[in-house]
Amino acid sequence: MHPVPVLAVAFADDAAVVTDVLELPFDLRERSRLRARLLSGQEIGVDLPVGTILHHGSKLRLTDGRVVAIEASDEELLEVRAQSPAALVRIAYHIGNRHVPIQIGDSWLRILPDHVLKAMVLGLGGQVQAVASRFQPEGGAYGHSHVHHQHDDQGHGGRIHVMAEPGGGAAK
Predict the structure, then answer these.
(1) Which domain holds residue 59?
(2) pTM exceeding 0.85
(3) Which of 36, 75, 116, 171 suits a disulfide with 25, CB 3.0-4.6 Å?
(4) Which residue blocks in 97-137 are alpha helix, DSSP H?
(5) Quick one: angle between helices 115-123 and 85-96, nearest 10?
(6) Which of 105, 107, 99, 106 is nearest to 144 (CA)?
């Protein structure tokens, strides 16, 4: 049996003095319970309320009183650009309809690698290039912090609406 590591169970104040760093990619920052290794090499446990997302720059208080800073690690992303701001907004609209995490920059969008979304963006006239960068997607218009990214039977992102077929049946 492994010894129980020191736990992070609460956020620390912005003014708290940081003693170590926990660097994580987005898929681990959106988990509320995990084991992780600090940059110092010490293993800790994270046990936060379900649905908590750890943002770059957040601080966690450990059960032994220390404070660790959360840093978003570089990860492989797709950066989307377009010929005009209107074209980029159109692409953002279509990506948004897929309910996937998206980071919005001045003249670009960044998403996690997804061949279906890449093909869609290219079909809409956008340009896509792979980049390695920190990923900090939007949190949601209503203050929700948890991102749900799931695929249907055909490998596509979640649907928003179920349209009725002629004759009263639901479209599949």
Answers:
(1) 6-72
(2) no
(3) 75
(4) 115-123
(5) 140
(6) 99
